[in-house]
Amino acid sequence: xxxxxxxxxxxxxxxxxxxxxxxxxxxxxxxxxxxxxxxxxxxxxxxxxxxxxxxxxxxxxxxxxxxxxxxxxxxxxxxxxxxxxxxxxxxxxxxxxxxxxxxxxxxxxxxxxxxxxxxxxxxxxxxxxxxxxxxxxxxxxxxxxxxxxxxxxxxxxxxxxxxxxxxxxxxxxxxxxxxxxxxxxxxxxxxxxxxxxxxxxxxxxxxxxxxxxxxxxxxxxxxxxxxxxxxxxxxxxxxxxxxxxxxxxxxxxxxxxxxxxxxxxxxxxxxxxxxxxxxxxx
Length: 282
Hints:
Blueprint: H1 7-11, H2 23-26, H3 31-41, H4 44-56, H5 61-72, H6 77-90, H7 95-107, H8 111-125, H9 133-141, H10 146-153, H11 160-173, H12 179-194, H13 199-207, H14 211-218, H15 227-230, H16 239-242, H17 255-264, H18 268-277
Helix pairs in contact: 3-4, 4-5, 5-6, 6-7, 7-8, 8-9, 9-10, 11-12, 12-13, 13-14, 17-18
């Protein structure tokens, strides 16, 4: 049986071309590569200019989704939703197009639309096709449909990462004081078993509030910002979604200042503020 994917894993990546670290490297590659390189360097204005120009000439699903993800990582969630809706309309048979749109609905609190999309896609294409199991769970639980959420989480065949996330969310809902500790133990055991670190595992450690371990293991993966922490910085995000990540809030020690930089300033200030809070590793 195919192991079902966790959409929130995909929240952590741009789904773009391989990351490049310098502008001069970008000049030798495709427009999508150049846009990624500028984004990584903090020149988000230049990155967006390249993406807009690329899409104005007609492009493929990779560029469409990359631009939506870029908007999302800047906290422009409503704009990213509009972009993902366009991508979904143009590429209805692409799994990530469904997954990104589902996640955008959930972040903005449009739970009924998220549920309708997920249920329609699996009815038409089968459960194995659909990305978004974690987001669908949140669309149920955050909207007060807890028995449906529990029934869904009880299904067999989820990948280990999805299973431990569901266990964490349900433990938090059930007010288990050790919910975070259990997630940390499960995550460290998975890292030890696999012998490698994935970004979603670092995210687990942040979700559980263990910044020290997250910093340590983040040194083994590409440097980027953590999107779930960025959710706290945008007024667009539905508060019912943030309720799933309370242990992350103390990691943003000066949240008002970080929010001010994120919402009012451009280019490197948002990045600098966030990276300072998480020790420069994420």
